[in-house]
């Protein structure tokens, strides 16, 4: 009986190894080279806690690539045709962005799994909105799922005593890094996929995403929140994370900007803080006017 179970286990392991490395991660054919184009591939995974009260998973997995892409956009437009590849994950299908708690820290492994899925959903929405923003510039962007890859990221947060047990298992059921790199390379190098800008790729082909990853209003709302979190200036709908903007999620940015600016324009007139400044100006005028009156 034990020999039978061992044989079944070995057969299952061999099947999973062949499935993930040969069937689910075939080498993408027809890939060209980078000659004549510029590509930026962004993607990293992290979890943990910091002293500051913010969502580390969202900051590292989404805000970091968002900021890097924003800083490189002038150069990418100059070097067009160019591409941006955002490394996402199939976990985005379990994501659900809550803009009231977008940047709140997570505690516990269950919240970390949820936050990871949310950050990967943010990657897909970011690629979608970026494609809209860059339409007609010669810069295209894609979200790519590398698949389950056997890398140090998989074992980074595993206790040391558990790693020797998981390494053989990871070798059996996870892709090699070469296999995981196929889809991002496909998005960066494949000819003729420019009309598919903003789409989600897995196993070197386009895959449909759930409705939450096709929500253009949520994508634009995430763009504005990401600008604020990345320190790129106040967002057009500059509300704190705890208080989202339910009144105008679909209103164009040109119509939303006057609302937060109205109090800043009208405040200086009646506010008491402006009266000392006015009094100083009046005193300076009086001081300058006194010698003139004495001379006359």
TrEMBL record:
It comes from the Eukaryota. Residues 236-246 have a biased composition (Acidic residues). Keywords: Oxidoreductase. GO terms for molecular function: oxidoreductase activity. InterPro entries: NAD(P)-bd_dom_sf (IPR036291). Residues 232-296 are annotated as: Disordered. Residues 287-296 have a biased composition (Basic and acidic residues). Residues 266-279 have a biased composition (Low complexity). Belongs to the short-chain dehydrogenases/reductases (SDR) family. This is Dehydrogenase/reductase 13.
């Amino acid at each position: 009986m034990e020999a039978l179970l061992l044989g079944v286990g070995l057969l299952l392991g061999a099947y999973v190894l062949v499935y993930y490395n040969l069937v689910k991660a075939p080498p993408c054919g027809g890939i060209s080279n980078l000659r004549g184009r510029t590509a930026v591939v962004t993607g990293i995974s992290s979890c943990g806690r910091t002293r500051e009260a913010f969502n580390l998973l969202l900051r590292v997995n989404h805000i970091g690539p968002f900021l890097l892409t924003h800083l490189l956009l002038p150069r990418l437009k100059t070097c067009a045709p160019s591409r941006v590849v955002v490394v996402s994950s199939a976990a985005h299908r379990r994501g659900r962005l809550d803009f009231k708690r977008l940047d709140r820290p997570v505690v516990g492994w269950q919240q970390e799994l949820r936050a990871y899925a949310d950050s990967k959903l943010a990657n897909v929405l970011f690629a979608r909105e970026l494609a809209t923003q860059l339409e007609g510039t010669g810069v295209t962007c894609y979200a790519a799922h590398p698949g389950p890859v056997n890398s140090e990221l998989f074992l980074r947060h595993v206790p040391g005593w558990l790693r020797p047990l998981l390494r053989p298992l990871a070798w059996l059921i996870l892709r090699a890094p070469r296999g995981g790199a196929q889809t991002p390379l496909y998005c960066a190098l494949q000819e003729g996929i420019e009309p598919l800008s903003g789409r989600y790729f897995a196993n070197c082909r386009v895959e449909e995403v759930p409705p939450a990853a096709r929500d253009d209003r949520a994508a634009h709302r995430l763009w504005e929140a990401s600008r604020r979190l990345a320190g790129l200036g106040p967002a057009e709908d500059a509300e704190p994370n705890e208080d989202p903007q339910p009144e105008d999620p679909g209103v164009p940015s040109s119509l939303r900007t006057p609302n937060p600016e109205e109090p800043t324009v009208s405040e200086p007139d009646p506010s008491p803080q402006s009266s000392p400044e006015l009094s100083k100006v009046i005193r300076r005028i009086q001081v300058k006017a006194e010698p003139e009156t004495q001379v006359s």
